[in-house]
Amino acid sequence: MGSCFPKQIERRKAISTERKTMRDLHQSCGEDFPACALRPTDRKNWMAGLNPEKIHIHKILWPGTHDSATNKIGFPCITRPFAQCQTLSIYQQLVIGTRVLDIRVQKDRRVCHGILVTYSIDVVIRDIKKFLSETKSEIILLEIRTEYGHDDPPDFEQYLVHQFGEVLIHQDDNVFNKTIAELFPKRIICVWKPRNSPPPKAGGVLWSSGHLKDDWINTDLPSTKFESNLKCLSEQPPISTRTFFYRVENTVTPQPDYPIVCVKSVTGRIHEYARLFITQCFSRGIENRLQIFSTDFIDEDFVDACVAVTYSRIERKA
Which domains does the chain have, with CATH numbers? Predict the structure, then answer.
C-alpha cells in the first residue's frame, strides 16, 4: 500500500504541471480568432440566423456534447457525480445551440454510461421532436451507439427509422457540399453504431460509424489531451474534401489510479480552454480541419465560439 503514495504524489505533480502549462499558454496566446466576438441573439435558431441558403454542411463548426443524455444518470450525490457529463436535458442543450448529440444505449433501450443507467431513449427522442417542432431551420447530427460492454437493442435501426421517419437525411456523400436549405424538410443526420448488429447500409436512411470519426484519448491530463487533440486534428484531411464527420472532444477523463474521479472536477481542467483550442487551430493552420467540437457541461460561450467560426467560414473571414 505504501508504494501507492509516491505514485499519487507524482500524479498530482503531473496534473499541477499540466494545468500550469495550460494557464501559461492561455495567457500568452489568448482567445483571438475571426469573428470571436460574435454572440448570436437567438441560440435556439442560430443556423437560421446565419442564413440556411449560405451554410454548407462542411462549413459548420458543430457544437456538440459528450455523453449527452447523462443529466439524470445514476443516483443524485451518490453515483451521479461519477458519470454525469451534462446537467441540461437534451431539449435544453438544443435550445442553447447544441447540434451534435452523443447518446449511449443498452439492450433495453435505456441510456447508459458504463454500468450506470438513466431514462429511456424515448425521452431523448421526445426532446428532439419537441425542438424540431419549435424550429424550422436547425439541423441535428444525432449519434446513437451501443455502450461498450452492452448488447444492441433488438430491431433498433427500424425503431429509429420509425421514430424520425421523414426528417431523416439519408446517407449520401454529396450532403457535405449541400446547404442546409437544400436538405429541407429533412433535419436529422442520424449515425447508428451497433456493436454486433449489421451496420446501416451505404445510401440508407441511417449513417454508419465510418461517417463519424474521432480519436479518443484516455487521459486526465489537460495539456496532454489538448496537444493530442491538435495533433490528431492536423492529420485529418480538410473539411472541404471529407466525406465523414470528425469530432474533437474538449474533455479529460477520470482515471482509476487517482482519487479524484468525479467527472466535473476532472473535466474542469480543460473545460475553460475551448476558445484557446480554436485559437490554436488558427495559429497552427489547421482551422480548416475542425468540424465537430464537443464538450462536457456545455454552456452558451462554447456554442457562441462554434457559431463564430461557422459565421467566419460562410462570410469567408476564415
Answer: 4-314 (3.20.20.190)
